[in-house]
What does this fold into?
Amino acid sequence: MPECAPSHAHDAFRQARLQQKPIVLRGFASDWPANSWTWRDLARAVGSQSVGVRGSAFANGQSTTFFPKPIAQKRLSTYFEQLQDNEASSERLFAFNLRAKAPSLPHENAHRLGRLGCRVVNIPAYFFGARGSETRIHYDFDWVDLLLTHFLGQKRVLLFDPSQSENLYQIPGTVHSAVDFGNLESVAARFDRLRYLQGYEVVLNPGDTLFIPKGYWHHVTYLTGSFSVTYRIWPNTLGSAFKTARTFVAGSLDILINHLPGVAAWQARRRASAFAARYGVPL
Ligand SMILES: O=C(O)CCC(=O)C(=O)O
It folds into this structure.
């Protein structure tokens, strides 16, 4: 995985974005306020509020659903204490609106990312995970460039460009792969195209920013309890703005209709038969 020091971040990022290649901007965010938050600060800021925590989509039989449902309700302060103690668990908060839950913390980073020469949508999406938890491999349905900045521990990210979708056994009609990367050894025989898979691997440390180009598949393993914040970059060409608008509407409709009774089960059946027809193996 290409990487660069903060002093070269602007030029290296510009080049990477032009070529649509990932890059790690090491230490780019080391002076952001979030890089000095402690788990205790976070627990204090959220008080006694509770949220639904997510687990592994594969362990919970939700591998064809867009957003897995929460597996438990947790007090945020209790969850952050677990992360501080580095307890192993599958519990995650995915695209979490920490700004709404902890408005007393400084969440303003858009101008800091603006130093890279891009404009980001000013909506921070936070991702928290316990040691050993995983975000299943997927790409973002709105087809935008992403900047993911990491804090308070380590996570490992695997990245694959859009040409790898077949080798990843993309589930038709979704942004998901059928491959459970948490159990690669046991699924490798069933998914033999994994042999041809080519991609990138990187471990992120506090203050590192990762550029994830449009449509890049990403799989995340939390090596320790830690969190990140992702910002979406506004499209810079008419073509990509159009594709983003189209995929955003289609993806949002998909999420909405899946809430109707029976639709999720019907979609799962339809996708399973399309999957078997495309790859010659059952989903
Ligand atoms: O870090 C994570 O757990 C997932 C990040 C992600 O999926 C994203 O930023 O789109």
